[in-house]
Design a protein that fits this description.
Length: about 130
């Protein structure tokens, strides 16, 4: 599936040392929602949170990294306009939810970053494993 490589790269980027040989199953019929859609929307939300939090906490080299990952996810998934809108809304929700809480990088913000990285890695891994074509 076209999302397999991207999810594997997310898992690798979010959790160094992660590797898998699983392939994601074939894409659903046109217009159908894939079974991993809820997880994909959560992953988009996590990417939005990371887009806000990582630069806030000093990851200056990542100013656009997580937004670019979201664009790559959309490009790879090639969703319908409705699904694309949901994915973008999830990303924006993740961004704004942290922007409303954190104005500075605090200890709690650093914990939130770690949790987002862990959750994103876990989700990417689970999508690949759960929807494996192997």
């Amino acid at each position: 599936m076209r999302i397999r490589c991207l999810l594997l790269s997310f898992a690798l980027a979010l959790s160094p040392g992660f590797a898998t040989r699983h392939a994601v199953a074939a894409p659903p019929a046109e217009g159908a929602t894939p079974p991993y859609d809820e997880d994909l929307l959560r992953l988009a939300e996590i990417l939005g949170g990371l887009h806000y939090l990582r630069p806030l906490c000093g990851a200056t080299g990542e100013a656009q990294r997580w937004r670019d990952e979201m664009v790559a996810l959309i490009d790879t998934e090639q969703p319908s306009e409705a699904r694309k809108g949901k994915m973008i809304a999830s990303f924006n929700r993740g961004y704004s939810s942290f922007a409303q809480v954190y104005r500075n990088c605090t200890a709690a913000a650093r914990v939130a970053v770690e949790r987002q990285l862990e959750q994103g890695s876990h989700l990417a891994h689970e999508i690949v494993v759960r929807y494996s074509g192997n």
